[in-house]
Design goal:
heterodimer, A: mainly beta, seven-stranded mixed β-sheet, four-stranded antiparallel β-sheet, globular, B: mainly beta, six-stranded mixed β-sheet, 12 strands
Chain lengths: 112, 113
């Protein structure tokens, strides 16, 4: 049973560029959440997708957007990258009505 | 709104010694509480969770945590530390299933030989 997978594992971009990160949830899960983890800090909630809609959103600007596909996989898009967007981006999946979230290995984004 | 504090950003213990990592939460409703571990350059792995059943929760790798409502705490313990326990530990809280997790800032555990 595959767990949560994310791609790519690492990414280097320059300021002003756009990036797309991808996540495939654990088998049987229908909800995907995205978190940003800056170096030395705990993960911060970006948003959550269920039934292809954004259900909750944390305190992140509109430059951060997402999408969920019919097969429950998800994308995180970040436009107009800033140096401060450099972080580990974590995807977590869960089943609606159940609290436990299972995390992928993350995508490490470096913005130069 | 929920919040989590973890006392001690860095804890060092000797191999074989007791591990105690502290977590205090703030929640207006009975919470669900979680401990996750993160090894270098990896994602988060679930250690254990409290979901309003038994207040003493046992997890993987010999870890356990006790929910104390009166102290709003959910401290993580392990009787005997192993070198392989060296990692970053995060406490997290949600108020309802389906809600987003609120994580603490983390505690880095070092295990000395």
């Amino acid at each position: 049973d595959a767990g949560v997978t994310q791609s790519p594992t690492h990414l280097i971009k320059t300021r002003g560029q756009q990036v797309t990160l991808r996540c495939s949830p654990k088998s049987g899960h229908d909800t995907v959440s995205w978190y940003q983890q800056a170096l030395g800090q705990g993960p911060q909630f970006i948003f959550q997708y269920y039934e292809e809609e954004e259900r909750q959103r944390g305190n992140f600007p509109d430059r951060f957007s997402g999408h969920q596909f019919p097969n429950y996989s998800s994308e995180l898009n970040v436009n107009a990258l800033l140096l401060g967007d450099s972080a580990l981006y974590l995807c977590a999946s869960s089943s609606v009505g159940l609290g436990t979230q299972y995390f992928g290995p993350g995508t490490r984004l470096l913005v130069l | 709104a929920q919040s989590v504090t973890q006392l001690g950003s860095h804890v060092s213990v000797s191999e074989g010694a007791l591990v105690l990592l502290r977590c205090n939460y703030s929640s207006s409703v009975p919470p669900y509480l979680f401990w996750y571990v993160q090894y270098p350059n990896q994602g988060l792995q679930l250690l254990l969770k409290y979901t309003s059943a038994a207040t003493l929760v046992k997890g993987i790798n010999g870890f356990e945590a006790e929910f104390k409502k009166s102290e709003t705490s959910f401290h993580l313990t392990k009787p005997s530390a192993h070198m392989s326990d060296a990692a970053e530990y995060f406490c997290a809280v949600i108020s309802n299933y389906g809600q987003n997790f609120v994580f603490g800032p983390g505690t880095r555990l070092s295990v000395l030989p």
